TrEMBL record:
Gene3D superfamilies: Potassium Channel Kv1.1, Chain A (3.30.710.10). It comes from Fistulifera solaris. It comes from the Eukaryota. CDD domains: BTB_POZ_KCTD-like. GO terms for biological process: protein homooligomerization. Pfam families: BTB_2. Residues 3-73 form the BTB domain. InterPro entries: BTB/POZ_dom, SKP1/BTB/POZ_sf, T1-type_BTB. This is BTB domain-containing protein.
Length: 202
């Protein structure tokens, strides 16, 4: 059986995965496709013409595929509600978001915040490994003094996500076998980050 269905919506051609349509089995669109398939055979089904707005059908498909759709400024939620109703698709309009609306702005802010947390975690991970290399050199150079070791880091090299969130830095150091003892300003433009190997703690 052909896995796609050719549609002509108001003069605009679409080829849609059959599973996408069948997922909305109670919709008018699904019934139309099913009727044509039964009459002509799924493999020989001709292009199905649907009297509708070919431009807006793109967003109908987005919703059918993902359960959510972002509308450009030229398309309103009210217009999409009419489109969904015409195809018999009971869309959750809370998932139909105008890109220029407040809901989209809140959604975008939440996504940016989530990405920022991911970036902060990566920066902290990189910084922790950099400190581990500094510690190796420090241990070799002053082996006789013993732990803990104070690692001097210039302010410009100290990621704000670590400087302002010691727990994040402590977590990343712990993942590579180091313990954060303290972190304090040392001089005008540098910090002293005191660390030791985790297995040396009493």
């Amino acid at each position: 059986m052909d896995s796609s269905v050719p549609l002509d919506v108001g003069g605009t051609f679409y080829r849609v995965a059959r599973d996408t349509i069948e997922h909305h089995g109670d919709s008018m669109l699904s019934r139309i496709v099913s009727t044509h398939s039964n009459e002509n055979g799924a493999e020989n089904a001709p292009i199905i013409f649907i009297e509708g707005n070919g431009r807006l059908f793109e967003y109908v498909l987005d919703y059918m595929r993902t359960g959510k759709v972002y509308l450009p400024p030229s398309v309103t939620r009210a217009a999409m509600k009419k489109e969904f109703d015409s195809y018999g698709i009971p869309a959750d309009m809370n998932k139909v978001v105008e890109k220029h609306g407040n809901e989209y702005a809140r959604d975008l802010a939440a996504r940016i915040e989530a990405k920022q947390k991911e970036l902060d975690l990566l920066r902290a991970e990189v910084f922790a490994f950099q400190l581990s290399h500094l510690l190796e050199f420090q241990a070799l150079a002053s082996r006789h003094t013993g732990p803990p070791f104070c690692l001097y880091v210039m302010d410009n090299d100290y990621p704000p996500c670590c400087k302002n969130n010691q727990d994040l830095l402590r977590q990343q150091l712990a993942s590579i076998g180091l313990d954060l003892v303290s972190s304090m300003q040392s001089g005008q433009n540098q910090h002293c980050i005191t660390v030791e190997y985790a297995d040396m703690q009493s």
